[in-house]
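Q: what sequence does this backbone want?
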């Protein structure tokens, strides 16, 4: 009998601020251990937290981008637990009065078409430090540079129905947050972290099954793999009549397996209570309205606009808006006067390959535009233009025309020169010439091809056929 999978995701993103959530320490990634610390983030007695206005603004912006209601009053609460990476013995978070609630993420599910997944809440909190296990043999060290870094936690409703759908949700969520400028969402640097919970039930059963939580997911692909492994594990348990225990699991990317970490602590174990050092966070309705008005264009809107404004196919618009930098670059190429579809083909081809390799656009929009013009005017062939592009990417100051000339890629349109190649080809293929003259006119393509080959691709194909026709006419 079939099982239905129910998945909910908790995503932590690091807000793109220069300083920490409650002190002025820097948030730079990769600094020497314990250099960005102060009495506040070390939890020394008497040090008082001061909320970072920019962090609140970015969190509110993220909430608005996800269609949440941003509340005029929210409350910072202490989440108490003991762990060596948490110097205060509690984490400042938000509990029963979060910053925002009730949003949604719409995306194309690989299984169910267009769907919406509810966003239960978005709240702000501070990050913990990091335990370092490989620095001193046999000892564990602690680095508190990350302690107090501002985070937004985004909790989804259990609306996701498959591991592949979970991945698609994450891709869309990340796009929205990057577009809105809330976070760089880099999983490599830990600025986006995912905890996933999964349960299974019989289709149509209104009651949710016992859920487990999977942690340690360091890529979207691994979220999908881990959830597949966990779904399989639960199905096997229930199929043989066992029960699913409520546990936290760690995913091992090497083996593709999940293993239990500890039995799930209940939320009341955290003994949440409002932080007495921090007054309620009060946001003026006008401030919230101004943030809403200042929201940049989001991926969905940009996709629709590219389709309509430039007449692009849906596929192209989706690829071009997959990253905000790509969309910006594309629009600046079109702004240089390049035909929108031609620009789309270039950006989705060679430009995107370079961008994926280097994270940059070494051929600026205006240089790409002049290269496209050379193709349109027949100065270089499309094939040759790709070689010119590769050279331009290596040489920041070179102009397309000069590069094409230097590489000998400018197409020859000189009748005399083309005539020379044509004569050589006709002399070398007397049998075909006879057949052509006997009425086999489709051999024209063969002759053009031979001339192109003999000219090493330099002959302008448009100039070749008239010369051939003239030489072959009776
Ligand atoms: Zn600090």
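A:
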């Amino acid at each position: 009998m079939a099982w239905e999978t129910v998945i909910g995701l908790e995503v932590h993103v690091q807000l793109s601020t220069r300083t920490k959530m409650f002190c002025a320490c820097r948030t730079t990634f990769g600094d020497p251990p314990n250099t960005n610390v102060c009495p506040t983030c070390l939890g020394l007695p008497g040090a008082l937290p001061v909320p970072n206005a920019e962090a609140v603004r970015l969190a509110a912006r993220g909430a608005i981008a996800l269609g949440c209601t941003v509340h005029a009053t929210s409350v910072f609460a202490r989440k108490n637990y003991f762990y060596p990476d948490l110097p205060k013995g509690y984490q400042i978070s938000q509990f029963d009065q979060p910053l925002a609630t009730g949003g949604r993420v719409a995306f194309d599910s690989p299984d169910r078409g267009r769907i919406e997944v509810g966003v239960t809440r978005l709240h702000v909190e501070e990050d913990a430090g990091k335990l370092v296990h490989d620095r001193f043999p046999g000892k564990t060290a602690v680095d508190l540079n990350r302690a107090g870094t501002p985070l937004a936690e985004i909790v989804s409703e259990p609306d996701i129905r498959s591991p592949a759908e979970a991945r698609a949700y994450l891709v869309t969520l990340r796009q929205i947050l990057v577009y809105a400028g809330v976070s760089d969402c880099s999983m490599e640097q830990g600025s986006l972290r995912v905890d996933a919970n999964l349960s299974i039930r019989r289709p149509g059963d209104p009651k949710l099954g016992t859920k487990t939580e999977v942690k340690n997911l360091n890529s979207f692909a691994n979220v999908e793999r881990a959830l597949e492994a966990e779904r399989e594990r639960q199905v096997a348990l229930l199929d043989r009549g066992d029960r699913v225990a409520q546990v936290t699991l760690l995913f091992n990317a090497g083996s593709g397996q999940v293993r239990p970490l500890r039995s799930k602590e209940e939320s009341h174990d955290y003994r949440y209570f409002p932080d007495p050092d921090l007054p309620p966070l009060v946001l003026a309705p006008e401030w919230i309205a101004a943030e809403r008005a200042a929201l940049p264009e989001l991926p969905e809107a940009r996709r629709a606009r590219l389709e309509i404004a430039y007449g692009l196919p849906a596929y192209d618009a989706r690829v071009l808006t997959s990253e905000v930098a790509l969309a910006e670059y594309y629009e600046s190429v079109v702004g240089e006067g390049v035909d929108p579809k031609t620009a789309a083909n270039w950006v989705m081809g060679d430009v995107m390959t370079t961008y994926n390799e280097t994270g940059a656009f070494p051929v600026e929009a205006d240089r790409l535009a002049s290269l496209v013009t050379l193709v349109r005017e027949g100065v270089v062939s499309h094939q040759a233009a790709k070689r010119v592009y590769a050279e331009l990417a290596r040489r920041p100051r070179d102009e397309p025309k000069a590069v094409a000339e230097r590489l000998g890629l400018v197409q020859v349109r000189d009748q005399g020169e083309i005539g020379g190649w044509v004569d050589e080809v006709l002399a070398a293929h007397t049998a075909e010439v006879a057949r052509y003259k006997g009425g086999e006119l489709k051999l024209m393509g063969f002759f053009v091809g031979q001339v192109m080959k003999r000219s090493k691709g330099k002959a302008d194909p448009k100039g070749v056929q008239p010369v051939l026709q003239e030489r072959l006419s009776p």
